[in-house]
Design a protein that fits this description.
Layout lengths: L2 H6 L19 H7 L3 H11 L1 H15 L1 H22 L6 H47 L4 H4 L2 H12 L1 H31 L3 H17 L1
Length: 215
């Protein structure tokens, strides 16, 4: 059974003339059950272009470490400023400017990584959309003429065609969510070593966004 058959219920088997799409309200159980399609979906994305997929993942993983590094450098800069102020006339700002230069480099690296992630994601999205369209046409070519005249079959084919771009957005959202989760975990580890009480502030900052997303 192909991915399109499982996802959209597309089959070349005869269907009942009364088969209409269900209008039942989606529940939490239905939403959790739909997660079973994510692994085969991600597998298809990877098979579209393995190198682009790996490049996108590695770039995102590297970018998740930058917020913690930037935060730590900010601490070093503040400590160095306090130290130099206590020295009075014997100030040596070379180390301070080195830290500022590294901080600037991290900001530029974050911007460059964002551009590279967007580029690889756009290329991968276009390739995946094209491949999905080709597979959908190949799947539809196995149907008989009578099945194309079936309203329910035609509706499913049309829905699958329209949702090709929607699956591209799904890929983008999944990768972004994974990146955010890894980033929060990395930042949490850093906060534990610096000051465990700051984890509470992190939770306070994350919970409203979580509630808004679920609402």
């Amino acid at each position: 059974m192909s991915f399109f058959t499982r996802l959209f219920g597309l089959s070349n088997a005869p269907t009942s003339p009364t088969g209409n799409p269900s209008t039942t309200k989606v529940t939490w159980r239905d939403s959790w059950a739909a997660l079973q399609y994510i692994p085969p979906f991600l597998k298809k994305v990877y098979q579209t272009h393995p190198y682009l997929a790996l490049a996108n993942i590695l770039l995102r993983l590297f970018k998740t470490t930058l917020p913690l590094a930037t935060l730590y450098l900010g601490k070093l800069i503040i400590d160095e400023v306090v130290k130099q102020m206590s020295l009075g006339a014997q100030q040596d700002l070379n180390h301070l400017w080195q830290l500022v230069a590294i901080e600037l480099g991290l900001v530029l690296a974050s911007e460059i990584l964002s551009r590279l992630i967007a580029l690889s994601e756009a290329l991968l999205s276009d390739l995946f959309a094209n491949q999905s369209s080709v597979e959908l046409m190949r799947h539809a070519s196995a149907f008989d003429l009578e099945q194309f005249e079936d309203a329910s079959i035609y509706d499913k084919l049309e829905r699958a065609r329209r949702q090709t771009n929607g699956r591209v957005y799904l890929m983008t959202n999944i990768l972004a969510q994974v990146q955010d989760i890894i980033g929060v975990i990395t930042l949490s580890i850093g906060l534990i070593f610096f000051n465990p009480w700051l984890i509470l502030l992190l939770l306070v900052a994350v919970i409203p966004a979580f509630i808004a997303e679920n609402y």
